[in-house]
């Protein structure tokens, strides 16, 4: 009895050490955490793709219904609730309709940071007008180019941007651009007289409005508007931003668990993705409050965060450097008390990261890498204790790599193009080698689409075809140079392992007719799975000879791991389908935890048959819609429907039997012949021979 009592804890301890080591290498727990946080956004995006005439205006309507009286924005001691912003945007929409704007047209927005910036583009979205968010620092030719490439028919500006707008006055007259000046009469004379718009004028318009008919036919994957690149390699390019992209950017807020009562501080310009899309949409979807600053000021930054009781703030890399440098000269800012839970942004340099997070006492820094027009992103959720993660633009394990499908290829910096082999294929970079980041393009996935720019040539230049990148169907990429950890060999090994495990389980189920089965060569062509099984069998035999309790614990541990691998394999199957079945994802999310509870309980000597029974019941819930759809599809789907029905019936019978007989939980599905004390070593040897077919 003493040996038995010590064997289970020893086996559990060894398993725990092995699990921690594997997690350190493959980052399973981090990937599961990311899936928990971002999974609902990805699944929600896929669902909304199929909804007719669903767009950002409908998302706003849902938010107003949930958060009507919550504060949406704070600006210069002025607060606007969700309902206030809804009323203002309705009045703005009525005004634009009166001025002759129609669904499908483009209206440019050139304003400094203020709540009305968001209200204007929201009003446009309600009537189906696209917004072009102009950089108010542009002048002359560059500004005229931005207006031209988006084919704008109107432009809204304010007092702070009229000087730069006046620099393209001659082009305004040539193009017949309508001008609307927000807040009062402009100080400069334009060749085209602007229409003055202020709150007094908006009072003449109703603050209610149902514009559903005007935006009918505008779907989730259609273009919401245009955000411009910085123009570092030429004139700015107008990147197409879809309603789905805006939704996805807002979903990043889940990494910091934003909710009503949180306050997000942003001093970043609203005309760009960080402030105007990620910042505004995060509050839009979560019900949090956006504390808006007109411009960045290192002197006012921490005082404003403290006064407005902010819990999260946005940054870009240089902003972090300015704050650190200012704190070196004015150390008193480090003692300003705040309620921050985290910061989110991109471009934070490794040399300032330590001071940024430690000196300002920021519990979590969410550093991400992506592009406005990009079809993928990397994210590094760095807690204050995770010092080894500081400086990385992204963090992900095996699961993250498989889901995103990204590649890092060698890049010629001088010629600004990927390095290719003799066949014209890109060459994957070695671990620790700088390279260019590629993400696969999938047109049926809202977060993996590449919509590109208004310029078809610029769009084509940004994408690589299958003939250029071996193993990927289509690839869009953004440029990034950083050191990486390769996990592809491990990924392939796990896939082989999974195949072998599935074969073995099938062999156990069909043992009487084992001799008549002929397995495809593709499934057993590699010796790696067989070596793994031999090692597994030797470990089991050795542990059984030492202690049956240890062997029992090992079997239950393998069941525990097997359930997780099954979920991973099932998930990969869903991902690589033309379109993932929601019922499959429902099965993974619902049943796998129950299976692991059951097998984990058996590992600890506390069987949980009810958890296995619950898994069987959840299988019904997950697959009933699939079964119904198969029957409706006709005779071509009849056989799969019968197969699903049989699987559900067998699962039901198995779970009921398990609930009646606890000993079934102690029989490992990885062992074709259960080992009994009376059988001796001959039984063990016979079992080991059956494993190898």
Approximate helicity band = 40-55%
Can you count the helices? 24
C-alpha-based Rg, rounded: 30 Å
Biggest sheet, strands in spatial order? 2-1-11-10-12-13-14-15
Low-confidence stretches: 1-8, 470-530, 661-693
Largest sheet at a glance?
8 strands, mixed
Spatial separation of the terminal alpha carbons: 36 Å
Structural class of the helix and strand makeup?
alpha/beta
Overall pLDDT level: 74
Keywords, separated by commas or semicolons:
single chain, 693 residues, alpha/beta, eight-stranded mixed beta sheet, seven-stranded mixed beta sheet, 24 helices, 49% helix, 14% strand, AMP-dep_synth/lig_dom, ligase, nucleotide-binding, ANL_N_sf
Task: Explain this structure.
It contains 24 helices and 21 strands. With 693 residues, the chain is α/β, with parallel strands linked by helices. The strands form four sheets. It has an eight-stranded mixed sheet. A seven-stranded mixed sheet has the order 7-6-5-3-4-8-9, with helices on both faces. Helix 20 packs antiparallel against helix 21 (582-603) and helix 22 packs antiparallel against helix 23 (638-660). It is globular, with a radius of gyration of 30 Å. The two termini are 36 Å apart. Belongs to the ATP-dependent AMP-binding enzyme family. This is AMP-dependent synthetase/ligase domain-containing protein. Residues 61-438 form the AMP-dependent synthetase/ligase domain. Keywords: ATP-binding, Ligase, Nucleotide-binding.
